[in-house]
Amino acid sequence: MRFNPRLLEVEDLREAYARLDEIRPSEQGRAIMAPKLVYRVVRVDNVDTKAANILKQNMLSIGGEVSLPREVFDYGGKKVSAVISGNLKHYKQLIAKLKRQPFGLKALAAELEELLRPAFGAGARVLRLGGREYHLDRKTLVMGVVNVTPDSFSDGGLYHDPRAAVEHALRLEEEGADILDIGGESTRPGSDFVTLDEELRRVMPVLEGIMDRVGVPVSIDTTKAEVARQALEAGCAMVNDISAMRLDPEMPGLVAEKGVPVCLMHMRGMPKDMQVDPRYDDVVGEIAAFLRQRAEAAREAGVDGANVLIDPGIGFGKTLEHNLEILRRLGEFRSLGHPVLLGTSRKSFIGRILDLAEDQRLEGTAASVALGIAGGADIVRVHDVKEMVRVARVADAILGKGRGE
After folding, report:
1. What is the pLDDT of residue 151?
2. Which of 172, 237, 303, 321 is the most exposed place for a label (fewest CB within 10 A)?
3. 401, 400, 405, 389: which is closest to 176 by C-alpha?
């Protein structure tokens, strides 16, 4: 007799119930066991040593575990990191315990509760964009790139003429783009920022040429508040800011006033120098900390948290290995609680792997898009819309997006 053992991957409570239903347990057993099937490993930083010891004692008392560094026995107020491991039942009990503890553990309980909310299946993830509701658990959105520049890394000059850019935008919509992203400033490595007047001269004729002709939301890719203001007044529904609203102090207030979604991207340095020896101790941890801080700053400026998207910034101040590490650990950014936008299309890390020029990176882009979706990307920003829409639909089907809707 063969018992046919196999590993089951259980991402959240929905998956847990689905796996249990296959063996037809009792209703009582189903409710008890499902939270025990969903396991999470969580790293937390800046924990006071006294709090770290209390954290470990509380988690051990309910059957979970906390890994701590040696210096945790130094009670001099030093801050340490901890790795917590357990199933959803453990975390539910731990959170209840920490809410009654000192040394900042009550605040940690609130952060853990927010972090694990998706695993407990609390509510649908919806992006409201241009008067529409996009259910991100049902479909990965494809954002089509329209570069109105003479020098973008991939298609610089092809759509610098407004008429060519308008026709390109219309073609991308026909190919299935859910969002169009219009930008008038190249952010390729080594590039300089353009003047306000030049950026407006590039993008406004294109926006005026497409707004009455497209049926999908349009995003403006800019770091300048005045460009964003005029674009939003022309009908754009979203701001995509590679500086995470750091370069123009008027941008956060504008986004809050207009009530539109904004994508905050991580970039080490500026395009001119971002690829000059970028270094990180923990690339994913440092990017996540940056994006969390920028999301908090956006909310403090009055931006609705539901309107904040995040982008780890593939290729913006990262080496090949940094980019690969980000893609391997992309799911960690989902823990920030905001939709994740991923832009890998035709980028140099693909060229480095395959030793191919920009116009030969379609298959490499497809691989990164598919694995990015599997890793947790909600929106993929691409040049080759027709092909990547097909990739996204197959990836969504494999992942079961929209199942049961």
Report:
1. 53
2. 321
3. 389
Helix axes 320-328, 362-375, angle to 10 degrees: 40
Q: Are 211 and 174 in contact (CB under 8 A)?
A: no
pTM comes to 0.87
Give the integer Cα–Cα distance in Å for 185 and 197.
11
Q: What angle do CA 247, 253, 258 make, to 5 degrees?
A: 120
Using only C-alpha atoms, the chain has a radius of gyration, in whole angstroms, of 23
Judge whether 361 and 351 are in contact, CB under 8 Å. Answer: yes
Alpha carbon distance 118, 337 (integer Å) = 8
What's the rounded mean pLDDT across residues 183-204?
86
Element (H, E) at 399: helix 385-399
Give per-residue pLDDT as tens, 40-81: 999 999 999 999 999 999 999 999 999 999 888 876 678 999
Establish whether 92 is a catalytic residue.
no
SS3 state of residue 85? strand
What number does CATH give the domain 126-399?
3.20.20.20
> What is the spatial distance between Cα 183 and Cα 109, in angstroms, rounded to a whole number?
41
Q: Residue ranges of the domains in the chain?
A: 13-115, 126-399
Interstrand relation of 39-48 and 308-311 (parallel, antiparallel or unpaired): unpaired
Closest CA to 327 of 365, 281, 273: 365
Helix axes 49-61, 88-98, angle to 10 degrees: 130
Residue type, 13: L
Cβ atoms 384, 362 nearer than 8 A: yes
Question: How does 11-20 read in b/e, with b if 16+ C-beta sit within 10 Å?
Answer: ebbbbbbeeb
- Is 106 one of the catalytic residues? no
CA distances in angstroms from 23 to 8, 32, 33, 35, 243, listed in the order given: 13, 15, 12, 16, 50
Q: Which of 56, 89, 258, 347 is catalytic?
A: 347
Q: Which has the closest alpha carbon to 359: 154, 86, 106? A: 154
Q: Phi/psi class of residue 229: alpha, beta or left (left: φ > 0; alpha: ψ in -120 to 50)?
A: alpha
| 277-321: pLDDT as tens digits | 789 999 999 999 999 999 999 999 999 999 999 999 999 999 999
* Vertex 49 angle, CA 47 and 55, to 5°: 70
User: Which tokens go with 60?
Assistant: 């051990």
Residue partners of 282: CB distance under 8 A and separation at least 6? none
